[in-house]
Structures
1.
Amino acid sequence: MARTHTPSHLSHRIGGVRPYTAGACLALVLVLLTCLRAAALPGAQAAARADYVIGTRDLLVVQVVGEPAASGTVRVDADGTVTLPLIGRLTASGKTLLQLAEDVRKALADGFFTDPKVSAAVQEYGSQKIFVLGEVRTPGSYPLSGETTLLAALALAGSTLPSAGDSVVINRPRHAQAATAEGGSDEFLRVNLRALQSGLAASQNLRLQDGDTIFVPKAESVFVTGQVRNAGAFLYQEGLTVLQAVALAGGVNDRGSMSRVVIVRAVNGVRTEIKAKATDVVKPGDTVLVKERFF
């Protein structure tokens, strides 16, 4: 219940709360993405963990139960402070959400409310960034917003290109203390992109952390030449067989023979021809050569 008495030193109200304007919508499809565009990102509705350490440019939601006039959405300024209704400026940067909520509770209990219940959450992680690079439509850096997952990050970058490979590599930097304690530096995580996009590997849709770099490598190629209808380079897919590679080239022509196929492969830097069966699996960089039939 609100008290009727207000201390003179708190009688002024600093209400510089800037309303949050939602950014541009995410591009539609499964791997909908958009990177470093001038359009703003939509604010996330998921609450942050209570032990999250607040940073500058974070957009916070401070709520006082039953007191909407004392609640608000505020951006952490460059000096690390926020301006809250009734209270004025408080230092937020470097504190956890629990610590900020407690500071707000104490300030409101000093002359405003009896035993106020206060919570703090992050609506937008303006102080944290992720990076999406490689075979995506709009590579670049993005603010880490809410519980951002790998698929959501790819969506922010406009989706993967047709030239993308089968996997995604996440480079996750470790903080200096963690690196010293664990005897290592960055952590590298590899995710099967095709399985993730098809919904077969939902557990690999990892929640991203500040500083993560998502790299989508270009798919490697195989080359099919000789007596085929459309010789050329084709995107490699894991498990690709000789028969499938030849099919990508339109099949053998009327002069070719599937019984006279060799794989040309560099072995220890030496060009080597390997007699191949239709069921043999090719490797990235291989050349499948279909030779002319004898008669």
2.
Amino acid sequence: MGAGMVSTVRVLYVHAHGGSLAVLGAMAAAFLVANFICQYPWGWLTDRWGRKRVLLVGLTAQALITGSYVLVSDPVLFIAIRCLEGAATASILPSARAAVADLFPDQQRGRAYGLFSAFFNLGFLFGPAAGGLLAGLGYVWVFLVAVGIRLIAAGVIWSGLPALRPPRSPAHETQATSGWRSLVTLPLVAAYVIAFGDYLWIGFDLTLAPLWMRQHLGATITMIGLAYSVWALPSALLVPLGGRLADRYPRWLLILICGLGQLPMYAAYALAHSMTPILIGFAIQAALYAVVSPAVDAHVAKSSPSTSRGRVQSTYSAVGVVGAFVGASVFVPLYALDYRLPLIIQGAGYGVVIIAGASLIALSQRRLTPAEPLEPDLTEEPAVVALQ
């Protein structure tokens, strides 16, 4: 929610303090580069130091960095702040997702990740709305309230999350000492392929989506905001159901069916001349993605050695950031040639990665043997797991 609040006013705030388009572009690049570079170090640290400590450090750092915006007026310093923000942000999702994997056995992880994604989407649904309302009182209030929200989140982590240590066994110790080999197994490579395809849209969204809706579809600023809400709301409501499906049915099959089901939406976006098909398409695509997301998350958790879950999650996120880079870099020149090209190429690319990723997951499951070490039973209460 804090990130969503600040995203509504950050560009306007920096521009009001003399930030040029070059500064704004440098801020975006600094954030993505720092986020990519810091993913693996944070993942390594959460495996060594514990999920709770890393989350506390990351949330506190985010709060302090967000507060520093109100103390700065030099546009160049905003680039440095955005770089620090990218580094701190890299600590959150890998640690949180690894904690979910520690707390729940595989047969419950689909539902657990479904609820996790629901709250994540609700934060991005209500955050921008709250930021827009607070901006009426002044941009500074948006940053200050975002600081408070992140400090509250740190307090929730401090009081509510057990200081879990990943369960260890001789087999898992062997996997942990294999270094990078434990991060590039066949089932994990399958997940990385899907993450790359997922984040292509993020690259389009960061660079072109609002411009596309404004210039070629005649959307107002309010309508553009409504489009993001139309995406976020079905995701938040339906992703818990998607998690239940991921616990009952083959995850590779859910990913394949609901992933390929999104492809007609890209064709509809490319052919659209108004916002109506976009709003309908966003709602349908969000509902389908609500099945794909927890299925992939649960698959990643199951495929991760308990002693390197943080590193696996950080690698997974880093591959996604690379996908966003590629999307932003490739789609901009394509957009200059024809605004439909990024949407067509993106749909085709997403179809390829879904087929490839789902096929690799299915192949990896066929290779499993009874001799493969099983995950520890984590169905006990968290406190018991912590003692173990």
3.
Amino acid sequence: MNLKLSLSFFPLLEDEHRYLVLAGGKGSGKSEFAARKLFVRCKNEGGHRFLVLRKVRKTAHQSTLEVFRRLLAEQEIEYTHDKTHQIISFPATNGQPNELLFDGLDEPEKIKSIKALTGVWIEEATEFT
């Protein structure tokens, strides 16, 4: 696995704290790093089910989902993309499946019933109230 990582965020790749807050200006690499950190965990550990949230569902598909799709293509990882439910699935090195669910909080009732999550990536947290 050959990942390009921002030098400023690289030390956080192995961080195991429950919460990780990335701060930086536009174009600082926060989203790219978050995608890469989730990717590394999925590939190395397997069995993950991450929820990736933005304030509005449409923007999740246009931003975080595309960041992750580019990363998987860059790493030449085969994956499936359920376009109806906006779920990307791909296996870990040990063969265990991983799922990333991309959604927004513009319809909070839709995410209330999501089960068995191993983590959440909240993109642009400053947009949330």
4.
Amino acid sequence: MDHAPSAGTTAEPVPAVIGRALDAYRRLGELGEEIADEWQYVTDLVAVHSADLQSLVEAAPDRVLAPAVVAAVDAAIEEIGLITDPHRAIDWLSTFPQVVRVAVAVPLPAGGS
């Protein structure tokens, strides 16, 4: 796998981490596109979720993610890299971006909402 998490993971800027996630996500989409009847659905999911993940970069291009967050995203990237079944890929097209979004989300202030 390209970016397996390791104990030595360091802090990284949002654009680098999201860039890796988007590359992996697009490869997952290409696998899902192998199911001809699902091509439009897959294409639409990839477009919407890719734009959403890119918005995380645009919202905080200078933000640096903690090593634990980088490791979490890299673990998710590694997980989807193991998928070889196009049907399973389609299942993960909605799940993976949400995992990344949760990991990268800006924490709310204590006691705030």
